[in-house]
Amino acid sequence: MIYVLLGIAAAFCAYIQWGDEIPIPYAEKDVNKQEAKYILNVNKQEEKDKYKKAVLKRRTGTSAFMTVEEYEQLSAPKDRMETEIEIPKVPTPADMVYVPQPAYKITRYNNPPGSPEITLTNAFYERRQQNAQGIVSPDFKRLVYPAVYYYPNTGSTACDLFVINLEEAKSNMDKILTANTVHRLSEPILSTNKTNDNYYTFRTITPVDFTPDGTKILVKEKVGNTKDGIWKTTPIVYDFSVNNSYSLVEVRDAITYYWKERNGLNLDDKRWDVYPLGFAASNPNWVILNAVAYTGDEPVNLGTWAVTSKGERPRLLTLDNTRSVQIGMNGFKLVKSGVVSPAISEEEEKQLKRIDKERAKQAKKQKKEDLKELKKSYKAKIKEMDEEFKESQKDYDLRRKIDSSTSGNEAIEKYKQIKAEQELKKQQELERQRQKELQRLEKERAKEQAQ
């Protein structure tokens, strides 16, 4: 034992004096291999993070690994025109078994002619805005509705006329039920004066009717005072084909001139107004309206007049109220026709529950399959990365081995020769596997024919 200790002490002294001459066991490490291994581990960790992120997003719909770019993408404004709108349904409170569901029907809007008016509810003065009854074009491609605004500081109102393009791949009823203001065009097609410096002044735009082809709409702009009544009604036609409006003010001038020349009646000193009735049934390029003067206890008829949709060639049709002028009723509106039968509502509720249950089942199955596919794809990717790394290391070792024994062009030629031999063996192995698979298929086919 003492001799062993003396030997170790002697070796230690020699190392102190001639340390560089005594070989110390040391496993040399290749820096290139270490770097390649490090890069492999980094790439594998990235793939693992991607896999975890995909799994979490599939399970919860959100991701805790969200990047700044993804957050900005999700935070970007969405196109409101692509928002899906469901058919409105009256919710059932928890303490109620049955709530009557309203039934709807589609009817003519301008019936009788000239009857459409804006009805303001009590909530209008609290909410300070109201979307009035809309009118649907004859081809069910667009819905036009007025939005009325209230200014409490002066007690005045203003109005805009908006358009909603209806969805094509739906029934006419569903097109109207799913029409939502979120889908309206950003800019109104018509607007009243928005100045509210006059107290209790109201300005509204009421749709009257469409032409049969739906390319034009007739509206009436009313201006008046809540304390004094209506001051003036102006017919306006908006042409969707050219995106332009025409104010039919010439017909008012024609009516004033006619009664001035005929009876010496100066309508400028009287209170009178016009009532747009709609488009002529015989010629939709003409707008029909009625004029009335309030010169006493009973309104005085000033005749039924016609003017082109561009406000040209106003003319008197008749002074006789008994003579009717055929006026078209082209637009449509949605009205409540009653309530849905309780039996139908219950059956629809049961059917919806069955559909929801089946959808949940399919979604759960699809989620499970998606998670399996994600895991399979992740494992395949990791396996591919390991195989590529293994091949690259073999190639690196081969190059080092060749470089240590040869040099110059001889090393390159030898490397190419070895790689060609390896590729040939690989192809031969693949061919052998293919032939083996063909033989297996031939045996199975022969066995099936024998049966």
Short description:
This protein has 451 residues and is an alpha+beta fold. It is built from 8 helices and 15 strands.
* Share of β-strand residues: 15-25%
Shape verdict? elongated
Give, in order, the helices and strands. HHHEHEEEEHEEEEEHEEEEEHH
What gap, in angstroms, lies between the N and C termini?
Answer: 83 Å
Separate helix tally? 8
Give the beta-strand count: 15
- Low-confidence blocks of residues: 14-27
Helix content: 40-55%
Mean pLDDT: 84
| Main sheet: strands, sense, barrel | 5 strands, antiparallel
Folded structure, characterized:
- There is one protein chain.
- Helix 2 packs antiparallel against helix 7 (about 340-405).
- Strands 2, 3, 4, 5 and 6 form a five-stranded antiparallel sheet that branches.
- This protein is α+β, with helices and mostly antiparallel strands and about 450 residues long.
- Mean pLDDT is about 85; it is low at about 15-25.
- The relative contact order is 0.09.
- The chain has two domains: about 100-340, no CATH class; about 360-450.
- It is built from eight helices and 15 strands.
- The radius of gyration is 43 Å and the shape is elongated.
